[in-house]
## 1
Amino acid sequence: MEHSIFIHILSMLVIAIVAIALLRRVGLPAILAYLLTGVVSGPSGFHWFTQLQMQSVAELGVVLLMFTLGLEFSVPRLWAMRRTVFGLGSAQMIITAFVAGAIAMLIGQDLVAAVVIGSAIALSSTAIVLKLLNEQNWLRRRHGELSVSVLLFQDLAVVPLLILMPLLANDGTQMSFNGIAWGLLTGILAFLGLMSFGKWILPRIFDEVARSRSNELFVLSTLVVALVTGAFTQWLGLSMALGAFIAGMLLGESQYRRQLEADIRPFRDLLMGLFFISIGMLLDFNLVMQYWWQVLLLLFAVVITKILIVHGILKLAGENSKISLSTAISLGQVGEFSFVLLALAVNYQLLETEVSTVLVAVAVLSMSIAPWLIRHSVDIAKKISGSNKKPESEPIDIVLPNTDESDLVLILGYGRVGQTIARFLKTEAVPYLVLDIDPTRVTEARAAGENIHFGDACRMALLKKMGIRQASLVVVTFCEPRQSEECLAVARKLAPDVKILVRTRDDANLHELKEAGATQVIPESLEGSLMLVSQVLFKCGVPLARIIKRLESERRNHYQYLHGFFSGTETDFTLDLLHAVSLAASASAVGKTVADIPWQTLDVELRAVRRRGEEIDPPPPEWILRRNDILMLVGKPRSIEKAEEYLLQG
């Protein structure tokens, strides 16, 4: 029995992998692949699992989704966008929910079902819209900003809806205003209690966790906090997702926000995949085929109605036709949180399974056509709004220069070097973003107003969140070579074209870092020597242009003149030494050319040859060695000993 369950789980995962790969090739979101996997694996397909069997695990996906949503919750951002968020967002949500709910009641649904249906249809897909707007570089355009504002309010509106769902489940009894009021009061008290917990205790917990420098402990602590707060709100009779959202919101303003999001994302994506698979199991394919024309009609009605409502609200707000229409088209689909509401409604028996199946089918189809609609929203809006207007009268949609995307410098590591770079960038008004893993340093810098975040710079998800693909320059300032190499590999994989400067103590790993993708490697000790040399030459009257040319030549030649020095009493056997070998008349190398000597096998470099007071640097391959020539060799001490023995004795 256990063996067959394992085979079924493995088969389901294989189906999910194949479905995601195929749908991504045609530009469709992974959500549809998970839903398709649920259809194939559920009662409508092979009947390996039921939705009830997946429910407990799938609910954890919703919990983690709400936790990451809380991390993105920013009070300053909300306040800056308050007019569009709370004005446009609330108008869209209320009007769309009212219209959809009213139509649901007209076709025979009761009040509770109408509330659920209206709320589900009013929501749009944050993940799909933001991803596609970002791909098209439209987030800074007016219609992009308006779309983000509406989506932000919709995400916030999910919170009271999560509170409302359990309150509406009264075992068939009528809704009580006192019951709803008491539930809302319980939610507010839970919010205040968790806020107090988050303000005084959570930061101290994560300070201690961060000081441990253990990724495993950080991930485990994040999962425990999300699940414990969810369990607390569930104990109060509310949903687990509400508690997770509050916990995420409490940690959203801390320096650990980006690291938390990067750590929780793999678990969230996996469990959310299982959640959408469980939603797919709710789809009765026979029922969908039976009501196929109603599904298509409802799909057309939902998309057109949402577009008309958003377009009308924006026109009343004074936006021009092109912007309002492109915004409305971008928000015409049904969102992923609608699946959450529909699943909760079925679990609480607020909605019939047949109605839920039809709505899920409509949501799936609307999300399927969403990528095409969003990519062509501007063109469609131009054709519709521009047909009756002259081009001269139509306002130009100006893309303002975004310093965060065009000139951003990403500094990885905020020690002495990183802070020095940041200070000079600040004086030149160059925007920068810093990532560091020292919790004390991050706390101090954030208190001073620095744009710094806590996190491990070797984490791919974290660098992606920091916007490495939009950065113009990345500066790696770590002292540890292995950490620099790992960070460089991840950064180069995410952003193949970005310029990456790597700071090292010396050039021991210069070639490895160059091969790993570093645009330029700056060895600290060698550059310090070059700066001192430049000052000496300048004081001696050497022209500045010649000094700069000489320094650049040294950098291009990998600091050739900064290697190989005469040893003193204490020899460092890890450094290259400069050693002079004088060829006697009986030396084996006399009469041979420079090319005849196996320098690579001897693991030494022939820096120069001195003959009769004249230095040839470097000697040509055909140069014939003679008696009394002095060879200047560079290499490790033991290699130099072997080379000298070979040159003199053969």
## 2
Amino acid sequence: MSVHPEKDVINALIAGHFADPFSLLGMHKTDAGLEVRALLPDATEVWVIEPKTGGKVGKLDCLDSRGFFCGVIPRRKNPFRYQLAVMWHGHENLIDDPYRFGPLIQEVDSWLLSEGTHLRPYETLGAHADTMDGVTGTRFSVWAPNARRVSVVGQFNYWDGRRHPMRLRRESGIWELFIPGAHPGQLYKFELIDTDGHLRLKADPYAFESQMRPETASLICGLPEKTTLSPARQRANGFDQPISIYEVHLGSWRRHTDNNFWLSYRELADQLVPYVKEMGFTHLELLPINEHPFDGSWGYQPQGLYAPTRRFGTREDFRYFINAAHAAGLNVLLDWVPGHFPTDDAGLAKFDGTSLYEHGDPREGYHQDWNTLIYNYGRREVSNYLVGNGLYWIERFGIDGLRVDAVASMIYRDYSRQPGEWIPNDKGGRENLEAIEFLRSTNRIIGEQTPGAVTMAEESTDFAGVSRPASMGGLGFWFKWNLGWMHDTLDYMKLDPVHRQYHHDKMTFGMLYNSTENFVLPLSHDEVVHGKKSILDRMPGDAWQKFANLRAYYGWMWAFPGKKLLFMGNEFAQGREWNHDSSLDWHLLEGGDNWHHGVKRLVRDLNRTYRQHAAMHELDFDSYGFEWLVVEDNVNSVFIFVRRDSQGNEIIVASNFTPVPRYHYRFGINQPGRWREELNTDSMHYHGSNAGNSGAVHSDAIPSHGRDHSLSLTLPPLSTIWLVREAE
């Protein structure tokens, strides 16, 4: 005799409180024969079908009017492949039963996921279209070890959490289910009854595509094909290469003039990419493009780490954009945010009712500054989720490097906290040892798995060895943003020139620690918001002096050791602060030729000249590549130095940061000969006063500054000039 399930078991299943649906549903051997059980709400009649013949081999009885069916297949002893013919609202549908399929996750994957060493967890977790036993559908899996029940809900099941409860793999805390007929393009979520019995509706942490905000459903779609960095792109990331980065917020670089709506990924490919190439930049850096709920976070509060935001189009549109950048010879860097995530209900917060991805104690798991949550880097599955994500963007989209945001907030437990608001590590210190290990591991894995890709750290403290290997006690990044250089030089430039002589060291101090890291010199988005003013508006004086100061500063920046980064709008001297809700002020370039055009031409020429001469970039991180010629003339606010390549070729850089021209300014040099004025920020071509040296000067055998030969120059007001030695 068949023993039908107890009523309380059926009640628990239908109510969504039965955590082991495979023990009840599907085909089971009983003393009476093979018994098939199915939960099919709203069905009126159910038959078991033999797929080979299409014949009906048994009818299932409705044991509960809410949709529980059960029946014994006569004269059958061995389980077989079957389908269900279901009558819904007068129409018969032939379906495959999700509960006839075996476990999905292989033992090795389960082991690696639990161990936190699965390099590509996204290949197993999430939603993956698949064919099983000849049946097309989608396999779903999600990590929620403390949930009482997890179901897949979506367009394929009327968003009804009763219909597709998942199997729990207790050894890993992962829930899984293959749903026949669920196909790419359909929306889904995970419905959880959490550890406290509360119903939660969550987006897939591993979703490859998501809905446009404010909607939060995930989209079934396949994995992009793997890609590798070409040899040219690998070389372009090298320490000895010219790296000039154009940092962009895709939502506000340019907008449609008629409705202020965003440009799409494809429109950006057609407009932004050629612009960046024409301006001479080598790299394009994107503010975070991961799906995020709040526009005002600029992407820095990501909710869907694996999904490019739908604001600008589909995932394939984003791939089109990346491919267009590569075709134009640009490397693409992605701003990556493993430092925190938002508290929105649809995201990772309290995922299964517990602090699963975040720390439970707000002294460890809550960012007061940003009202966001902090990942628990010490939990293996969490660090695995993040490391895998870094690889995902590089391997699946061809991203050439990751810029990691707010590293200081990750590696210090007392970041922006008062005494008593943070918990020391197990050694009593302030360092977040788990975050440090996570960053080292991420950088090591990226280096091993994706040759040529790089990482850059935005780290605002003096933590030793950010861009040094872990074996030396470092974090293993390739580059570090030099925020100290940025603050010092901007503080100097905002001064009235008459006061600059008293702050001379702000321009020279950077060389005292230049050898400690592989630096990028950033003028980023953070410097043109929140009342800081635009870079142009920080410059002192009248309009002429503001532009002259800015041009001299850019000439200094492009010559100083370190790779370059400029946020959009700075290249044409936007006058107002950046506003993420509107386009850059492109109208400043309309009409006749003006000062903004001059700055734009200068940035283009700086990029091209910087790339042309190895002396300006080859030895950025080698002391042989830099030498002061005049460093102590604070009275005149003059600085002169040499940049040098590995072959000994030199370029002389001279800056005058006062509005007073310096005529017959003599200084000693290493290499006598004729020196050509390669670039002059005071040129009339850039709307300067056009003072200078008539194209070239010849050295004199007159000792100066401890050297046997010297040059006598005219240093234009508020200017930087570059001199190249001509062949004899």
## 3
Amino acid sequence: MTPNAASASSGPSRRSFLASTAVATAAVAGGMPLLAACGGSDSGSRDGTTSGKTAKKLLPAYVASNVVTPDIPSKNGSAMGFTSKLALSDLKTAVPKKLGKGSSIKIMSPFWGTPPKGDNPYYKAMNDLIGVDITWQNQDGITYDEKLGAVLASSDVPDVVVIPSWNMGGKIPSAIISKFADLGPYLSGDAVKKYPNLAAIPSGAWQYSIFGGKLRGLPQPAPAVVGIVPFYRKDVFDKEGWDLPTSPDEFLALAKEITRPKAKVWACDDMKWSAFNFFGVLSGSEKPLGWNLTDGKLVYRVETEEYLEALEWTRKLYAGGLVHPDAKAQTQGTAGDRFSSGQVMIYNQNISDWWGKMAEQAGQNPDFRISGMDIFGADGGDPTLWAGSPAGIFAFVNKKASKAVIEDILAAANVTAAPYGTKEYMLTNYGVEGTHYTVKDGVPTKNDKGNQEVINAYVMLASPAPTIAHPDLPDIAKEQVEWQQRMGAFTKKSTFWGMQITEPARYTNLSNDFEQLEDDVVRGRKKISDVQQAVAEWKKQGGDKLRDWYQKLHDTNGSAQ
């Protein structure tokens, strides 16, 4: 189910990180930014954010779901976890009354893979459950940016458009404000109680769905905890007696011990994203999270010593020959494949790979065991981690849609946001029993038809609170949630966390070149001094003015903390 967005790179790019995070929310059964007091008119000509009392007036009332009780409650910003066997006879009903009134609705959404035919049994069953006639206009997720821009620039916008946060560059935020409906009259305050499953979505995800001063998005909630995990081959570590490192220096020492090029074994793949976490670098996933008020001054991530230290440490791994050569060349293969084949012992990727790799290897290598090491601090002490965005993908409703169509779209979202352990969840995520999946010993297993049809569709409309559940591998679900909870204890929220901020258009591409520069530096193609020079240029070209803009935004709105 994971989108093929990482291509053949050695580690997660910013986009592949976000893509895997977002779709992981569907894969692990749950979920995976702008606030506008500075303006945010429907014309889309204003930029800024909406916070404080203004935002609170727009938020749906939060009413926790009591339909199902998780085995592991959410803690420290983690997902909730389910580890019990799944019995279809015990499934609860989350939508006792069909709310849809029969509207015909067209939804454009990114799709990774080959879309199924529109009249398939899964789509028919979902539409019947909801009481609407939804037609999916699936678009290639890899080139979604291009299609999205063209559609939003036209006068022919579908009833619903799904937009991942990594596709919100350039003019897309302005188009969101000008093209999509205000859902506040239907969802703000107690109005949301008509849709109990939407009311159970955490308030942070709704606040992040405010664009241009209006509640416009239906969110896929995401855990606030770091999503990138430093994975290791636990089966090999146990066999060799290797101890897990507890500092960057210990990691380097272990990497030297592990690496045996003649045996085609290297310690790791590209570890840049974990290095950012080891050294406490501000999030680079979305621009507002890269800013933080430090000692009374707003600082951007690339200006920090931690940023340079993380790059220098990663450069040492490459310079020492401790990283797989294909990761350095960035020409073939993937980090995950090199890990599975035993060519690297450590790699970093989205937390969804914890289950994904175990499931992938179950029939091929029964001794295979993946696990995630805890993130440590630069000095070997506790890490300083930064919270990610409270939502990663949004569905938007055409502002020209009628009241009846909007209400039917919300009826559909109320079904897709049903929690794990309900009949609605099972149909949304697994399809029709017997047609798309079977259950044996409490484990639902999709057949070929299920894998072809029950994918990338209704889960993109709205999701329940972040949830991790793997009926086939409950121990993995438990490990994932517990890892999130441990890391969540060291997680902080940066100044603009949870605020959907629309930067002035002139600054939207200001930081775009840094990711490529990072990759060049760690591989030895550029120097740390080149980064320092790039930061100086960034300041001159608008970085300092953007800082002033953020400072004014903060002075006006405060932080979301």
